[in-house]
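Why do we care about 3D structure at all? Because function follows from shape, and shape follows, mostly, from sequence. That is the central idea of this module. The next example makes it concrete: a single protein chain, its amino acid sequence, and then its structure expressed as C-alpha cells.
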Amino acid sequence: MNRKRVPKGQVFLKKEEKISATLAALDAAHTEMQFVEKFKELYPDDWEKIIKRHNAHERLTPEGKSHPMPNPTQYLINTYRNQKRKERKAETAPLTQA
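And the structure:
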C-alpha cells in the first residue's frame, strides 16, 4: 500500500532573505496586502510553490478534516508578521558587553 504524503520541510528556499528583500522594496507605510502583491511580483516561482504545497495539503487531506497549512495569502501574511516580529525583537535586544 502506497501512502501519499505532503513533503515536509521548507516551502521555498531562503525564506527570511526573500521576505526581507520584499520588505526593503516597499515603503515604510505599507499594508500586508501590498507586501503579498510585491512578493508575488518579485518571486513568482516561490508563489507557485506556496500554492502547490497548499493544493497538495488540500488534495491529500480526507474530507471533513483540516490540515496545518493556511491558504497561500494567509501563509505569506503570517510569514510577514513573523519577520516583522523578529526585526522588532532584534532592534530592542540589549547589547551584551564583554
